[in-house]
Amino acid sequence: MTENLRILAVNAHPHDFTHYAGTLGIHASRGDQVTVVSVTTGANTHNERLHDEMMKPAEERDPTVMAQTEEDYVVVKAIELRDACAVFGISDVRILGFPQPYRLGLFPESIEALRDVILDVRPHVMIT
C-alpha cells in the first residue's frame, strides 16, 4: 500500500497559485493531501476591477468599486483563492496575511509563521 503524499505549496501572493494549480489538482485527485499557503493577502496586486475603473473618465467610474477598501479587497482575494483551489479539489488553504510589499527583512516573524505551517503539515514535498 502506497502512502499518500503531503504536499505544501507556498506562494507570495494568492494569484501565484495559478502557476502550479494543475499539478496540485492532479495530486489532490490521487488522494494526496495538498495545502496551499499564501504569505501575503494580495491586497496590492491584480485588482482588475479597480484598474478598469481607473482607466475610465472620472465621471464614468463606478463609485462602489472606487470606494472599495483594502480590507474589502483582501476578503475578495481570499475568496478567489479558496474558490480557485476548490476547483482543483484543494480545501486546505491558508493565508498568512503579511502586507505588501513583502520583504523578509521587514517581517522576520513570517519565518516563524511558515515554520508553524511546515510543522503542522509535515510535507513530503514543498513547492514554492
Keywords for this entry:
alpha/beta
Q: What do you see in this structure?
A:
This protein is an alpha/beta fold and 128 residues long. It is 40% helix and 19% strand. The longest helix has 18 residues, at 70-87.
Q: What is the overall pLDDT average?
A: 92
Number of strands: 4
The CA-CA distance between the termini, in Å, is 29 Å
Helix content estimate: 25-40%
Number of helix segments? 5
Q: Which residues sit in consecutive blocks of at least 5 with pLDDT less than 50? A: none
The rounded Rg comes to 17 Å
Strand content: 15-25%
Oligomer: single chain
Structural class: alpha/beta
Give a quick account of the main beta sheet: strands, pairing sense, barrel closure: 4 strands, parallel
H/E series: EHEHHHEHE
Topology:
Elements: E1 6-11, H1 21-29, E2 33-40, H2 48-54, H3 63-66, H4 70-87, E3 92-98, H5 109-121, E4 125-127
Parallel strand pairs: 1-2, 1-4, 2-3
Structure in a nutshell:
The protein is of the alpha/beta class and 128 residues long. The chain has five helices and four strands, in the order E-H-E-H-H-H-E-H-E.
